[in-house]
């Protein structure tokens, strides 16, 4: 079966750095997405990786290793507004998105 | 403004009373999808549509129907709702599958409670 694993919850301090990991086992691979979802709101797109390596976008970076079935989202200079759930999703061989359950990130002052 | 809209945003209904949740996008997207989101389970796909008149089952299609008569609209129909369909529902769209980098744009969500 297809499976995506993320930690359920993480806590970090305002101004610090946090890394959210995602491991996947899917039928084929056509890219990995990270989305941010604030409580009760819709997910919004953060990043896309299809090749190995690091993609940087401001305070957010996303890394992919296809051979290890592994990705992480790195958030720097954490702000209170970064408190949200972070969803990892993989596009499989049928171009359908397989979603992880999400990681709830709690930022403390 | 480019967006995906859903109606209603909140709905409380009773078991067995047919309901429809509408979804519309104004971005001329080919691909549309319905998800439900339950605590601890993440997003699970109900149905998706690659284009007009083309629909396919997702992971949890039982108890749901969809149609895609026009490109912009993709309504979700619950013919006989049951309490286990109480959930947060999201409609999403994307330009298509030709480019794997196309992300999905989500509607604001519909919180459905079936008593």
Question: If you had to describe this structure to a student in words, what would you say it looks like?
Answer:
The complex is a heterodimer of chains A (about 110) and B (about 120). Chain A is built from no helices and 11 strands. Chain A has strands spanning about 5, 10-15, 20-25, 30-35, 45-50, 55, 60-65, 70-75, 85-90, 95-100, 105-109. In chain A, the strands form 2 sheets. In chain A, strands 2, 4, 5, 9, 10 and 11 form a 6-stranded mixed beta sheet that branches. Chain A has a 5-stranded antiparallel beta sheet with strand order 1-3-8-7-6, with no helix packed on it. Chain A is globular, with a radius of gyration of 13 Å. Chain A starts with a strand and ends with a strand. Chain B is mostly beta strands and about 120 residues long. Chain B has strands spanning about 5, 10-15, 20-25, 30-40, 40-50, 55, 65, 75-80, 85-95, 105, 110-115. In chain B, strands 2, 4, 5, 6, 9, 10 and 11 form a 7-stranded mixed beta sheet that branches. A 4-stranded antiparallel beta sheet of chain B has the order 1-3-8-7, with no helix packed on it.
Overall pLDDT of chain A:
95
Mean pLDDT of chain B: 94
Low-confidence stretches of chain A: none
**N-to-C series of helices and strands of chain B:** EEEEEEEEEEE
**What is the number of strand segments of chain A?**
11
Largest sheet of chain A: 6 strands, mixed
What is the total tally of β strands of chain B? 11
Low-confidence stretches of chain B: none
Largest interface: A-B, 22 and 20 residues
* Whole-angstrom Rg of chain A: 13 Å
Helix segment count of chain B? Answer: 0
Strand residues, percent of chain B: over 45%
Number of helices of chain A: 0
User: What structural category characterises the helix and strand content of chain A?
Assistant: mainly beta
The assembly state of the depicted protein chains is: heterodimer
**Element order of chain A: H for helix, E for strand:** EEEEEEEEEEE
Q: In percent, how helical is the residue content of chain B?
A: under 10%
- Structural class, from secondary structure content of chain B? mainly beta
Radius of gyration of chain B: 13 Å
Distance between the termini of chain B: 36 Å
Helix content of chain A: under 10%
